[in-house]
Design a protein that fits this description.
Blueprint: E1 15-16, E2 21-22, E3 35-40, E4 46-52, E5 55-61, H1 66-87, H2 91-105, E6 114-118, E7 126-129, E8 134-138, H3 146-161, H4 167-172, H5 179-194, H6 200-207, E9 216-219
Parallel strand pairs: 3-5, 6-8
Antiparallel strand pairs: 1-2, 4-5, 4-9, 7-8
The chain binds zinc ion.
Zinc ion binds next to α3.
Amino acid sequence: MRRACGREHGRCGARVGAAGYRCGVPEEPSPKPEVEVRRSARRTRTVTAFREGGRTVVAIPARFTRAQEREWVDRMVTRLAEGDRRRTPSDDGLLRRAGELSRDYLGGNAVARRVVWSSRQGRRWGSCTPAEGSIRISTRLRGMPGWVLDYVLLHELVHLLHGPHDATFWALLDGYPHTTRARGFLEGVGHAVDHAVPPAGELEAGAGGGLEADGLDADVD
Ligand SMILES: [Zn+2]
C-alpha cells in the first residue's frame, strides 16, 4: 500500500493537479527522447524545431526526401540540445543553486546531495528521494524562467524535509516570493499540454510561429 507522497517509502509520490505541480517517484530510464516529424505543404524553405509537451517536433517541407528528413532532424535536434546547454545550468549548477535556495529560504535545513536533470520524469516537474538526498528535475523545465526552476528546486528541497503537500509543506515554501506565480506558470503549461492547444507548427503560417518560444528556425537552402 502506498499513500500519496508515501511516508513509508520516504518518497514524494503525489500528483497535485490543482497546484499545477506534479512530482513523484523516479522512473526507470528509457532510451531516447521522442521526436515527431511534421511535414507541411505550406512550408517550402524553412525547417523549424521546438519542444511541445515533452517531445521535440521538427517541422519540415512536405517535399523533403527521407534522406533530407534524416539530415535535418539530426541537425535541428543537435541545435536544440546546444541551445538547452547554453540556456540552462549543468547538473553541478543545479546542485549549487539548490544549496543557495536552501540557504536563502529554508535556513540551510534541506541538504541535497545530488541534483540532476532527468528526461524521464513523465508529466512531473521534479521528484526526490529523501533517504538519498537526491532530486531530479524534469528537462521540460529547460528554457523556462529562472524563478520557475527555482520554485521546482525549492519544492523538491522542501520534500527532503517534509513529505505530504499539506499546510506544513506550503508554510515551508512561504518565504519564496514567486511561489504563487510559478505554480500558475506551471499550471498554464500543464493546461496547454492537456488541452492540446493547436500545434505550433500548424499555427506558424498565420501566426508567425508565435508559440515557438523554445524553438529555432533554419533556412533549408
Ligand atoms: Zn511535491
